[in-house]
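Subject: Interface between my chains keeps coming out wrong

I've been trying for a while to get a sensible model of this assembly. When I model each chain on its own everything looks fine, but I need the whole thing in one frame so I can look at the contacts. Pasting all components below, labels as-is. Any help appreciated, I'm running out of ideas.
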Amino acid sequence: MGTLADALRNAVGLIVSLDADLIEYAGRSLYIALVSTCLASMAAVPIGILLAERAFRGKRIVVTVLNTLLGVPTVVVGLLVYSFISRQGPLSALGMLFTVPGIITGEVLLILPLITALTLTAVARLDRDVRRTALSLGANEAQALWAVFRESRFGILAAIIAAYGRVVGEVGIATILGGNAAGFTRTLTTAIVLNVEMGYFERALALGLVLLGLSFTLNIAFQLLQGGGRGQ
Amino acid sequence: MSVLHMKGVCRRYVESRTGKIIEALRMETLSVEKGEIVVAVGANGSGKTTLLEVLAFLDAPSEGKVLLDGVDIWAEGRDLSARRRCPILLQKTVLFSGSVIKNVTFGLRVRGLERDETESRAWQALELVGMADLAHRRSHELSGGEQRRVALARILALDAPVLLLDEPTAGLDHDSRAVMMKLIPELNRARGTTIILATHDRGEMEPLAHKVLCLEDGVVV
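Reply #2:
Try treating it as a single job with all components included. I did that and got this:
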């Protein structure tokens, strides 16, 4: 217990003193999480809405595949992207291995099915007559889909929050595709693993606390956003 | 010339559970003249809703033609403009989140009308259904009858030449039902609106009708 208490005290000290490394890792983690979540959302939300709204042959198979992808381990996604962007891979010319864009690519692929599946669920749970009502009032297809989006926005926001949470605490992809290079690709999670391996438990704990704080703050912000809009 | 004309229309569905093909509507011919009130009556599952949704251009017929002012709408690919001329009060009331006035302006906003005009037309429609007092109330705070009246105001604001009303009085309280029963003939007289409505309550609506269609298993009997 004493070790943990000391570690916590030192961790708070590191945070309060705004340790330069800590700020760097936190900033990079936040950047990767936000950019990945935004990019994935831009593709996954429309796909989720269309999947929920459209009936087509093989839809059940698509949904099953999507749900299966939710359980894919992050290291597998990391390895898959690695095989494409490594020196022997077909996309090696892009020079993305061990870079932040490389990590973002992996994270986007990781959360794409998550946001799509949760958006699909949020929209499917919504009254199916929303789209028909919009169409019956003279909306074109795009306007009707926009109405569906607006009505399911809280469910979609929850999907985005879940995806952000998954990325910000992710370590497998960040390690494989980022290489944990100090000053370039080290994130909070990869730094935590490194510090534990090196025996710097207090430092690892401090980083862990910051990670928790980042996740907590963004979640609170999202919750406020949801709460503020619920009455509208 | 008829406002709406159906020729050899058939609407089939594939039942999702069994994969069986269901013929929900077969209408050899139907003409609706300008300014008419047409009442479709029949039991549940008789094809009334399908008929109205095909006439509202929400659903394309599986075969046959639906003409609006002589134009074969589906063949010409003009279903959006047809839908804008024939709005329908769907059987199930769905209000969008937000205020009552925002709901009533929806159809006007998607048509790209100016804000001043959308607001004034929405207020007029709310006055007509006796809901102007609740214009700024959130839609989810309304009772079922009030929601139905807002849904009616939403299509009245469009000032369309044809209105389709699917079970307009179903589930309404006495006051809301009275508003609806007063409005339908008034609209028809004052604006010359062609009204096609579906009901299972034959006695209630038949006195308003210029033409009555009795439906059974998707065909007129």
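Reply #3:
Confirming on my end. The longest strand of chain B covers residues 21-32.
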